[in-house]
Amino acid sequence: MAKKKTSISLIGAGNVAYHLGLRFYEKGYPIQQVFSRKIRKAQKLSKKLNATATNQLRDIKPGSDIYIITVRDDAIVEVAKKLHPQVENALIVHTSGALSSKVLKPYSKNYGCFYPLQSFSINKTIDFEKLPVCIYSPQKKNRQKLYKLAQGICSNIYEINDQQKSVLHVAAVFVNNFTNHLYHIGQQITEDAAIDFAILKPLIRETMEKIEQHDPAEMQTGPAIRGDRETMEKHLQYLQKYPDWARLYRLISQGIAP
Ligand SMILES: NC(=O)c1ccc[n+]([C@@H]2O[C@H](COP(=O)([O-])OP(=O)(O)OC[C@H]3O[C@@H](n4cnc5c(N)ncnc54)[C@H](OP(=O)(O)O)[C@@H]3O)[C@@H](O)[C@H]2O)c1
User: Does the pLDDT at position 1 exceed 60?
Assistant: First the structure.
């Protein structure tokens, strides 16, 4: 007889809830409830997941195997506190890269993290085959449950403890948020000079493709690694009108210089 799939309630209806919810649903996991403070938002997602919607945490029903809290980091504890009476014995997890699983400890004896390491936006599809999911619970039986649940939606699963996860999150900010900010600066610089930013996109792609096969340090090119001081001086002169970016240019170049 086929084993019953883990039932899930989603607390939050933003980017992460949307993608995880759809993927779990597609893979046959019953989604019981979706919570958002805005009932229309909860309804919109719950309709896609054949779940019920609520905008009241006190109306979250007991009985789901797992409660996935996908609200913004600063609201996780406040939400877990309000859920506490209903979900006391259930497995509750949050999806934050920045917060320890321990923040949930006062609210259920079964707690953990289910952190999908990707940048989620509702209007952009996610390749779940490549998505790394980091799972953790201090309790072995819950780690096993989370591992199995992650296996149901992807094949790239890492057991990462709270300490490692907080370090991983620092690295993720560098490789994702900071590089994206640098793209933004590149866009401003080109557009201010009436150049189409699209001209830089093949270069961005090439750099990303290189790190699939090589150590990033070995692949570094540009004036700082070559020690082309005159070129760098020229760049800095041009950047005088953007003092913050000139400071960034200096700092990053110092890091790159051999
Ligand atoms: N986006 C990513 O790329 C990504 C990747 C990995 C992990 N995460 C983590 O996943 C979690 C959710 O991120 P997200 O991008 O899905 O966020 P999001 O799209 O901004 O959605 C956040 C959700 O939190 C709810 N919320 C905010 N403040 C609340 C409060 N005081 N009480 C109750 N609900 C509240 C919002 O409620 P309403 O619906 O009522 O507005 C919304 O449903 C965060 O912990 C984040 O660190 C995000």
Answer: no
Residue 235 has pLDDT above 70, yes or no: yes
Q: Is 21 in the pocket of ligand 1 (CB under 6 A)?
A: no
- Percent of the chain topping pLDDT 70: 99
Confirm or reject: Cβ of 119 under 6 Å from ligand 1.
yes
Other C-beta atoms within 10 Å of 223: how many?
17
Residue 11 Cβ < 6 Å to ligand 1: no
- Per-chain mean pLDDT for the chain: 95
According to DSSP, residue 174 is labeled I
Segments making up each domain of the chain, as ranges: 8-160, 167-256
- Give the predicted TM-score (pTM) of the model: 0.89
Query: Does 45 have pLDDT greater than 70?
Result: yes
**pLDDT tens figures, 189-207:** 999 999 999 999 999 999 9
User: Which pair of structure tokens corresponds to residue 209?
Assistant: 């493709």
The domain 8-160 is placed in CATH, from the list 3.40.50.300, 2.60.260.20, 3.40.50.1110, 3.40.50.720, at 3.40.50.720
- Sign of the Cα pseudo-torsion (96, 98, 104, 105, in order): positive
| Contact present, 41 and 13 (Cβ < 8 Å) | yes
How would you classify the pairing of strands 132-136 and 8-11? unpaired
CA-nearest residue, atom 23 of ligand 1: 71
The dotted CATH code for 167-256 is 1.10.1040.20
112 touches ligand 1 (CB under 6 Å): no
